[in-house]
Amino acid sequence: MATITKTQSKSGTAAKKSTSKNAMPESKFQKLFNEELKDIYWAEKNLVKALGKMAKAATSEELVNAITEHQEQTKGHVERLEQVFEMLGQAPRAKKCEAMEGLIAEGQEVVEDTEEDTAVRDAGIIICSQKIEHYEIAAYGSLRTLAHVMGNDDVAAVLEQTLNEEKEADSLLTQIAESSINEEASAE
């Protein structure tokens, strides 16, 4: 694994130096970062499939479009995470994300427990989708901050791109819910 560390050159200025895993053992902080990176990688890869199922279960065209667009965006998130692994000199590896597995299962349960073609189902899908977005916002925000602390500003910038997209997706879901779905669901 390549890590970026700050070292002092003979002139006293800070320079970035790349070291290999064999030359310097991974710190506990770096290990935490790497484990969380593997966790969100698993989450995003599994979310791609789950979003397809949620889009098929949704009724509102606006909601279907939002989920479908975010599914495509999520494929890009997977690619960005693979870029981050590459930037760190690591092969992309996933570690089962128990939290995302639970959130996906909860979304499937909502679909199974609600009637087809109803605003109530759409409202439930939005709730579950926003729980997922909030988890991702927390994960990407934390990873971005850890990357900054480690001096990996390039990695932090890549993670921030995804963080911003997750925030936008959450905001869009709120707009959709508030525009009509919640009112329609309460009348059913």
UniProtKB/TrEMBL annotation:
Residues 1-21 have a biased composition (Low complexity). Residues 1-27 are annotated as: Disordered. CDD domains: YciF. It comes from the Bacteria. This is Ferritin-like domain-containing protein. It comes from Chitinophaga sancti.
